[in-house]
Design a protein that fits this description.
Chain lengths: 199, 418
């Protein structure tokens, strides 16, 4: 239950606030998840671009080996996203897995959470397979090459823009209860008579 | 070529529907991105992994979205702030539900604390950007239009400003002061809103008195209706009801104090409603009754009672400090800052306020203990040779007499050597 607050009373009983209706917001988390899915589908970095990047950067022999790993990622994405969502969704899922694991060596807590947040519950073996395959692909490239590839998506999301307030010193200190005297143990202590057992 | 303010700027872009070029004002609903901010919910009080996970997911969405917002260019930021209702609701939900440090303390897992910190900073920076009308030489809004934008879209309102002070006033007080002063300077309607809010704040104090079955203005004049439930005194009410009252009082006093501490210019508006007298009168009725109700309970949860006592003591101190901020801002500061011929109205106000609270003996003692009345009277005497000594002597005598009526002794104020 929400704590009783002065501002709660002011929001309810004064006429200086906008009376918002929050009843429609019960499904906001579901809506947000589906919106993220859509954003993922319209990402600038596509699976085709990843495949082309590999083809353009490696010789034939290396390509053959890397193609197998790309197929593994795609299959893992199929397991995680589900076939019912179509090829486009699977490829978007594969891009997401590639972005998630391109600098990682194993499936950690953060990666598990990110995948679960995006797709819901998923088989961990698929995530591990995708992670291993991505690691092997990444080993053919320098960090700079991979960063340049991933940045295609980040530029679209504005991740490299200047962040307002980045130079502001922010304090996490908050108002706390003032130090005060302790509760007198039994307020009527002074009035209590001493009971003597010395009969 | 002069740089235009954002509110006069027009942008030419391709219409996504027709493919033709079109010109729109920079502040236009169609310039808003479809982002969908989610509402903030506080961390779960129990260590249920599913609830913790849901909290983290929700909080991460908000933190990411606010970071995205803060990285937007000036025009896009303002379009989002003005036209995205989900963002406004998200920010409001944070102000309403974010845990205060003076709330009952909960032992949250480290990842929850980290996420909460991240969110706390992003929310503050968002409000900071929203209260800034000039970001740079090229990026600004006409001050009067800025005031209208804030007010007409409820980007700030009085409860939100109070929440901001309660949440950020301690560590970021200087910045917050600048933000709130700018808001009130650019939009004087906020002073009118504050004036309209003060009666509701007074009603909150009255409600506490009514819940405690204590008399208050007007209520005592009406006979109790037969079907009305009999009011229970704090000593007789269930512990949970007493706890609710003390928590409400604690939040009310701390929030009010935090606001006046950051924005003392609000004091004049409060005093238009005779706030000093109403506050002292409330204190006199409620505090001894609540203290006694906690002390008398000997057979109940000891740690809860100790917590309630701590909160009540804190609330007492905050009421006294609020009264002092008001006196300082309305009377003492103007006396110190005005020329000799202009100080008389402020001296008169001081004398009137103290004369009005002389019958509130418990309040007077507690106030005098923290802020000795004799010191203020001495200041008055130094400032004006025409001071009515009879009136000041009467006030000081009443303070002395109030001390005689209480059990504890006045702590002598030890002044450090010069």
């Amino acid at each position: 239950m929400a704590l009783p607050r002065l501002t709660g009373a002011l929001r309810s009983f004064s006429n200086v606030t906008k009376q918002d209706d929050y009843s429609e917001e019960s499904g906001d988390l579901m809506n947000k998840r589906s919106k993220l899915h859509k954003q993922l589908m319209s990402s600038e970095l596509t699976w085709k671009k990843i495949v082309k990047f590999v083809e353009d950067s490696l010789d034939k022999k290396e390509q053959q080996s890397v193609n197998g790993h790309l197929t593994t990622i795609l299959q893992a994405a199929k397991q995680i996203v589900g076939t019912e969502n179509g090829q486009e969704a699977i490829e978007s899922g594969a891009v997401f897995l590639f972005k998630t694991f391109h600098m990682k060596e194993c499936v950690g807590h953060d990666e598990t959470k990110a995948i679960k947040q995006m797709f819901g519950p998923f088989p961990s073996s698929s995530a591990t397979a995708a992670c291993n395959a991505t690691c092997r692909i990444a080993s053919y490239f320098t960090e700079e090459q991979l960063t340049a590839l991933i940045r295609i998506a980040e530029e679209q999301n504005g991740d490299n823009r200047v962040f307002f307030g980045k130079n502001i010193v922010f304090s996490f200190d908050m108002h706390d209860l003032d130090h005060s005297e302790e509760l007198p143990i039994n307020g009527e202590a002074a009035e209590q008579k001493t009971i003597s057992l010395d009969y | 070529m002069p740089v235009l303010p954002l509110d006069e700027l027009q942008l030419t872009e391709t219409d996504p529907k027709t493919g033709k070029l079109r010109t729109l004002p920079a502040l236009h609903p169609e310039m808003k991105a479809d982002q969908s901010f989610v509402l903030y919910k506080p961390p779960p009080k129990v260590r249920d992994p599913a609830l913790v996970e849901e909290f983290l997911e929700r909080a991460k969405f908000i933190a990411d979205d606010l970071n995205w917002l803060l990285a937007l260019p000036h025009d896009k930021f303002w379009c989002q702030v003005i036209f995205d209702e989900t963002l406004q609701k998200c920010l409001d939900s944070y102000l309403c539900h974010a845990p205060r440090k003076f709330d009952a303390s909960f032992d949250f897992p480290p990842e929850v604390n980290d996420m909460q910190k991240c969110l706390h900073q992003s929310v503050f920076l968002t409000f900071l950007r929203m209260s800034t009308h000039k970001e740079s030489k090229e990026h600004f809004i006409t001050p009067s239009v800025f005031g209208e934008i804030l007010y007409n879209n409820f980007l700030f309102d009085i409860p939100k400003i109070l929440d901001l002070c309660a949440l950020f006033g301690k560590g970021n007080g200087t910045l917050l002061q600048k933000m709130i002063e700018n808001i009130f300077t650019q939009q004087s309607s906020y002073f009118s809103d504050l004036n309209e809010t003060v009666p509701t704040i007074l009603q909150v104090f009255n409600n506490v008195l009514q819940e405690c079955g204590l008399q208050c203005d007007g209520a005592s004049a009406k006979p109790q209706k037969l079907e009305e439930r009999v009011k229970v005194t704090p000593s007789a009410m269930p512990l949970q009801a007493l706890k609710d009252i003390v928590l409400y009082l604690c939040d009310t006093c701390t929030t009010l104090w935090a606001f006046l501490d950051v924005f003392p210019l609000a004091c004049q508006t409060f005093q238009k409603h005779d706030f000093c007298y109403r506050l002292a009168s409330f204190y006199e009725l409620a505090i001894p009754e609540l203290e006694s109700a906690i002390k008398r309970r000997t057979c109940e949860d000891k740690s809860l009672l100790a917590d309630l006592w701590r909160r009540l003591s804190h609330s007492r101190k905050k009421v006294v400090e609020i009264f002092h901020i008001l006196i300082n801002q309305i009377c003492l500061q103007p006396i110190l800052e005005s020329s000799y011929e202009n100080i008389q109205p402020f001296i008169e106000e001081f004398l009137q306020i103290f004369t009005s609270v002389l019958q509130e003996r418990r309040f007077l003692c507690d106030y005098d203990e923290l802020f000795p009345v004799a010191d203020d009277v001495s200041l008055l005497q130094q400032a004006s040779s025409a001071l009515d000594d009879t009136r000041t002597a009467y006030i000081l005598q009443a303070v002395e007499s109030a001390w005689e009526g209480v059990e504890r002794r006045k702590t002598p104020v030890v002044k450090s050597p010069p």
